[in-house]
Amino acid sequence: xxxxxxxxxxxxxxxxxxxxxxxxxxxxxxxxxxxxxxxxxxxxxxxxxxxxxxxxxxxxxxxxxxxxxxxxxxxxxxxxxxxxxxxxxxxxxxxxxxxxxxxxxxxxxxxxxxxxxxxxxxxxxxxxxxxxxxxxxxxxxxxxxxxxxxxxxxxxxxxxxxxxxxxxxxxxxxxxxxxxxxxxxxxxxxxxxxxxxxxxxxxxxxxxxxxxxxxxxx
Length: 218
Hints:
Helix content is 76%, strand content 0%. By secondary structure, the protein is mostly helical. The two termini are 30 Å apart.
């Protein structure tokens, strides 16, 4: 039963933030936004079972940097974007270190490329129409990096890492669409629920990411 305590606490604090914490004061909102990520970081470390290996430390660092992004984005979209981009680079490098080659998984880069191209095209048009051309390069860079991160997660063959990366892409897709293209109904609920779930699944993947079996996942 003890192993379920921390996941339940993460679920509780995530739900508390999403459904009950008001927008003002901003300091309270940011504090409760970070609490689930602090718990996910603890869970990630404990889920490594033994002292984390280099690949696991890299991913834990990515979780920490994304947590910083949660706080930074409240004050500056660009700083928050930069933090999350950096966090995805750490995920990318961590997943690459646990790469399990498969032609089927490798070919998934085609689908990821098509998706990233389509959403990037819509975002660029919206940014130009709204007079936010200065954000085009940062946004395109972010889409490129998170797409590579998702593909690197697929290449691990780890179902938790794959599910987490896909939910992260979904969360950020909803966020960017809501910010720049058009309003998404219940956007806050959708963004944060998929975001916290994504980070939890990535943290959970650390327990099996370094297994030698190539039969796991896809």
